[in-house]
Amino acid sequence: MVISQKTSKKHPLEPYIKRLNSGEALLVDSPENVLEVVGILHSYGIVLDAYSRNLIYIADNQFLVFFPFFKYFNGEVSFQKLLQHWWHDRINFEYAEYCMKAMFWHGGGGLDAYLDTPEFKQHCAAAVQAKFKGNPFVQGLNWLFPDFLTEQMRQMAYYSGLGQFWRVMSDIFMELSSRYDKGEIKTIPQVVEHILNGLVASANKPITYSVKIRDREYEILPKSAGLTFLMDTAVPYVEAIFFRGTPFLGTVSYNAQANQIPPEQGKFTYGALYADPLPIGGSGIPPTLLMQDMRHYLPDYLHQVYQRSRRGEDDLRVQICQTFQKSMFCVTTAAILGLAPHPLDTTEPEQQAENRAYLEYWMDRFVTSRINDVNQ
User: Fold this and answer.
1) What pLDDT, on a 0 to 100 scale, did the predictor assign at position 8?
2) Are 261 and 309 in contact (CB under 8 A)?
3) Mean pLDDT over all residues of the chain?
C-alpha cells in the first residue's frame, strides 16, 4: 500500500511568512534601514502633526461652510500667509484631504457603517437645523435635496476621524525618533515593536466628533457610537491608503474601454506599498506633495545619506519616497502582528494553521507590491 502525504504548496512570498513567524519584519534588519526608517518617520511625524491640526480645524471651524476659502490657514489669516500660500511656501494640506477622500471613498470599518445609520441622520438633522436657522434658501435646498448636507457632514466626520488618527500616529513616530536618539532603538524589529505598542495602547481610544453652533454643542460622532481608534480609523486607513489608493492622473487611462483601472475597488493597488517612486515629482501625483513636505524636516543624519547618493539631491523626492515605503512596510508589519488571530510564536497546531492562512492572505496582496524592491 502506498501512502501519499499532501504537501503544502509554498507561497511565492514564503520567505516573508517565515520572517514574520520568527519575529522579524517585512523589511530586512540593517543599521542603514534603521537610520532611514527612523529618520523619515521623524519627518513624517512633524508633517502629520500639521495635517492633523488642519483636518481637525476644518471639521470644527469650517463645518458646512460651502466656500471655505481660508480652510488651510487654521484661523490665522494675514496678507503674509496669503502670499506664502500662493507661493506654496507652506505645508501642502491638499495631500491630507486627498487621503481623507480616499478613506471616504473606499469606506470600511465602523465609522463608515455608522454614517449610514438613522442615528447619524438624526444628529445631522439637528445640526443642520441649528446651523441654518433663519436661512430659507439653504433650508429649501435641504428640502429639495435631503442627502446633500448629510453627505457634506459625512465628509466632515472623516476630516475629524482622520485628524484624530494622525494625531496618535504623529506622537508614536516622534517618540520613536526620541528613543532612537537616546540609543534605545537599534533594530527594525524594535521599530516595529514600538509602533505596535503604540497602536495597542491607543486601540480603544474613542473617536468622537461634535461641533459648536450658537453656543451649543451638537454631537456628530457621539461616544455612544462605540467608534475606536484601531478598528474604525487605523485599519480602514491601512486598507485605503497603504493598499488601494486611487489611480494617479496622467499615469493610467480613465477610459473604461482601455481597461487600465480595475472595475472593482477591492482590486485597486495604487496605495503607498505599490507606488513606483520614479513618477514622484511629476504633475498630478498626490504623494509628491507629501514628499515635498517631508523634505523640509529631514533630520541631518538622513539628509546626509541622500546627499552622498549618486545623484545627490537631484532626485531627493524619489529617494524620500523609497525610504518612506520602507517605513510603511514596518508600519504594516506592526498592523499585521496586531491583527493576527493568535500569537505568531504559538505551538498549537490549530492556531498555527489559522495564522498560516492569515499570513497567506496578506502575502497574496503583497505579490505585486514593492516588498522585494525595498529589500534589495
Assistant:
1) 53
2) no
3) 92
pLDDT digits (tens, 9 = 90+) for 215-262: 899 999 999 999 999 999 999 999 999 999 998 888 888 888 888 999
More confident residue, 240 or 10: 240
Question: pLDDT tens-digit profile of 135-181?
Answer: 999 999 999 998 999 999 999 999 999 999 999 999 999 999 999 99
For residue 106, which phi and psi values (nearest 5 degrees)?
A: -75, -30
Query: How far is residue 194's CA from residue 202's CA, in Å, rounded to a whole number?
Result: 13
Determine the Cα–Cα distance for residues 194 and 208; give it in Å rounded to an integer.
26
C-alpha to C-alpha distance for 38 and 95, rounded to whole angstroms: 22
pLDDT at 313: 78
> What is each CA distance from 151 to 62, 115, 128, 147, 207, in whole angstroms?
15, 9, 12, 6, 19
Burial of 278 (0-12, 13-18, 19+ CB in 10 A): exposed
Distances in Å between the alpha carbon of 127 and those of 145, 149, 274?
16, 10, 40
Residue located via cell numbers 514564503? 14
Beta partners for 221? 209
Give the relative orientation of helices 31-61 and 287-295 as an angle to the nearest 10 degrees: 110
Mean pLDDT over residues 3-16, rounded? 68
pLDDT digits (tens, 9 = 90+) for 51-66: 999 999 999 999 999 9
Phi-psi region of 68 (alpha: psi -120 to 50; beta: other; left: phi over 0): beta
Instruction: Of 161, 197, 167, 163, give the one whose Cα is nearest residue 179.
Output: 197
- Within 10 Å of residue 197's Cβ, how many Cβ atoms? 14
Angle (nearest 5°) at CA 338 between 247 and 286: 20
CA–CA distances in Å: residue 74 to residues 81, 186, 209, 289, 344? 11, 38, 18, 19, 45
How would you classify residue 64: left for phi > 0, otherwise alpha for psi between -120 and 50, otherwise beta? left
Separation between Cα atoms, residue 121 and residue 187, nearest integer Å: 48
> Over 90: is that where the pLDDT of 71 sits?
yes
